[in-house]
Amino acid sequence: MSSPTRRGRARAATESDIRRTARKLLVGQGPEAVTLRAIARELGITAPALYRYYESRDDLLENLRLDVCTDLAAELAEDIAELKDEGLLQLFQICKGFRRWALTHTKEFTLVFASPTGATGTATGSALRRLDEPFGKIFLAAAGHVLAQHDLVMPPNDVVPPELRDDLTAFQEDLLTVLKESGREIPPEKLDLGLTYLMITFWARLYGHVTLEVFGNYPIPVSKPDVLFEAMLTDLARDVGLYSD
Known about the structure:
InterPro entries: Homeodomain-like_sf, HTH-type_TetR-like_transc_reg, HTH_TetR, MT1864/Rv1816-like_C, Tet_transcr_reg_TetR-rel_C_sf. By secondary structure, the protein is an all-alpha fold. The protein has nine helices and no strands. The longest helix is centred in the N-terminal third of the chain and has 28 residues, at 2-29. The N and C termini lie far apart (70 Å).
């Protein structure tokens, strides 16, 4: 009876060592440095031994990506812990916290957000696209809180490009499920195509801005990036009717 337990503990410890070593390589050198051979060399074991725990490098990177998303969500949850009844403040604190994290965790950001495949070579999707994961949940829970507390200026359904409607309809169903699980259930009739389109464009503008800043790709030199980011958030709030001059 005790032998499997000991083996289980040994396996967990080894997996922890592997993931910790992978994270060290990621932070120090970037996603490309996270290879089974490099991890094995750091741990003093053979690369084939790692296949007892992970089927491939992609499998390991996917688990590492989930670890990063979990840590990010925990950090953001701490940021908004004292803002329980303030949906708008929560949402914009999450936006600011996401930017802060991205600028101080550039290699992790690269792994999780810099490509649609999460840099693993497989169709893992971004951390927000996977709505049932920690980051997607905390972001959408705050957005749902805003929807419950405020009347937004939403684009009418007929302004949504017809070519996008099938994709947005499918996304609506996922959104409703996640919002319900987060305790922010929204009536299906309120989450129409216009609102779904609004949420997608909100994320695209936030993500695009942060990505440009992380990789230093602003089209002009910016001496006060904090001011530019705050102005972008104000524009977003104004566009959806949450702020007026």
